[in-house]
Design a protein that fits this description.
Order of helices and strands: HHHHHH
Helix content: over 70%
Number of strands: 0
Number of domains: 2
Structural class: mainly alpha
Shape: globular
Largest sheet: none
Strand content: under 5%
Length: 166
């Protein structure tokens, strides 16, 4: 009979221990893997690509009548982001890839949320006009920079990634 109270406590502690384990696993997933690689360089490279990709997505909304040349730049920025993800993933552990990509995506997402907050503070007609202005100005410049790097200097980018992985 003396084991019954202990067994009951064990069953009640199991969910608590499982939730603590989950917290520990989630925290460890956010910690940079230990290696000689410069993951911060990879994060910065991926961040630029993700910012161009996520911003391009915002500018591809059907309610915006962007010129074809702008839409092409935004589509190319998405291709660049996919290429960067592939290049960064090669030769890294799954944990390193997850850390780099999640860090970069989270940072880009955070910056774009700030843009959305500013846009949403306007009435709908002004919001759309401001989004159009942002897309054809700031965001187009970011996307063009990414596309030029992708099309004109892929070897330089690959060398930066390779050096960061050493």
């Amino acid at each position: 009979m003396s084991q019954a109270p202990t067994a009951g406590k064990s069953r009640r502690l199991a969910p608590t221990l499982m939730s603590c384990s989950l917290v520990i696993v989630l925290c460890l997933g956010a910690i940079a893997p230990v290696s000689a690689k410069d993951l911060n360089v990879l994060i910065r490279i991926a961040y630029e690509a993700f910012l161009a990709d996520q911003g391009s997505w915002m500018c591809s909304l059907p309610r915006l009548s962007l010129p074809t040349e702008d839409r092409v730049v935004f589509a190319d920025a998405k291709n660049y982001a996919n290429w960067i993800k592939q290049q960064i993933s090669i030769g890294l552990s799954d944990q390193e890839v997850q850390y780099v990509l999640m860090s970069a995506a989270t940072r880009a997402h955070g910056e774009l949320l700030q843009v959305v907050e500013v846009l949403k503070s306007n009435p709908p007609d002004i919001e759309t006009a401001e989004l159009y202005r942002w897309c054809t100005g700031t965001m187009k410049g970011i996307a063009e920079k990414a596309v030029v790097a992708y099309t004109d200097q892929p070897d330089v980018i690959q060398q930066m990634i390779k050096k960061a992985k050493e």
